[in-house]
What we know:
By secondary structure, the protein is mostly helical. It is 67% helix and 3% strand.
Amino acid sequence: MYQKEIKDVTSTALFSAVEVGKHLYWKIGSYNVHGQVFIVSWLVIATLLILSFIGTRNLSRIPKKMQNFMEFVLEFLQDIAKNQIGEHEYRAWVPYIATIFLFILGSNWAGALIPWKLIHLPEGELAAPTNDINTTVALSLLTSIAYFYAGLSKNGIGYFLRYIEPTPVLLPINILEDFTKPLSLSFRLFGNILADELVVSVFTLLVPILIPLPVMILGLFASSIQALIFSTLSAAYIGEAMEGHGEH
């Protein structure tokens, strides 16, 4: 009996040590963080900042080249916020929606276009930050904080009336919905990006010359769609939270 208990404890300890893949860990205080995610994230952020600086350093009334492209991107992102949040409230949320969209798009494209496997690390390998569940969960939690803030700032305590509308019977379901929203956002983005990278890796191993190219192009398209879906749903949740629940 005693030996059986020891075996059970040992097997439990071994099971808890199991993880999927290898990671480059950085120790910050008492926490271990995935270093490869930070490296690629910083590169994506630096690239976005450089492009923003180049596109806005010499602004003119008649836009040319880079400025014209930047204005097109801004109008596109403004339309996302306006359509989901509303014409009167959307302006304050354009920076958040734009940041979410551009970071996810940049991360997805970085994973699809750059041959990270050529760069060898002591542990793990570089890849898109969005193929790590920690990144997608963090982005989803930011959206959750954003729509709670939007609802409370617009409707005050009356925001919580939404949990008992149209009937108090739906209170548990409405509360559960606030947990399922970030879960849905995070797992959708994580699953699609991870699956895309796995498919490209398998095709590259099997047929390393021409066949992976169409799959990579399709992956770029799918990556763009995922960034659009995440930012659109984030804007939709914020717009839903700002509806006039407190006016009833």
